[in-house]
Design goal:
This protein is an alpha/beta fold and about 150 residues long. It has a single domain, classed as 5'-nuclease (Rossmann fold, 3-Layer(aba) Sandwich). Helix content is about 45%, strand content about 10%. A five-stranded parallel beta sheet has the order 3-2-1-4-5. α1 packs across α4 and α6 crosses α7.
Length: about 150
Amino acid sequence: MTLETSELLLLDTHVWIWILNDDPKARRAKALEKVEAAAKQDALRISWVSIWEVSMLEAHKKLVLPVPLSDWIREALNVPGLSMASLDPEVLIESTRLPGQFNSDPMDNILIASARHLNARLVTADRKILHYGQTNFVKVLPFGVSIP
């Protein structure tokens, strides 16, 4: 699986957290090189969904951050080569009408619709999303897992 020079990568929330927190899962992931290369090309994106998910995880004490949440988010969005993906009405509409058989939580649907809208590869370890990627309805880049 090669990464084209101008291809955008959209990070799934858990991948974003792993990379920023220098989690061993991120350090071992073969796809980390591709993420770093995309950052050097200003081709790395994060969805507003990820900010919401990190905030919810932290609020429910399922994620402990080394600094206050707003500081972590501010620093996390300041990573060179990383930009916010826009949330267009088309993305929200498409998230309710994804092709094939993908019914997951609304946030995963929005991430998939965002990747499709951007023509980006969604970087994830979520097996359900990775399986959906095998249908070619969304481009995926497995991060730290293999697709069975």
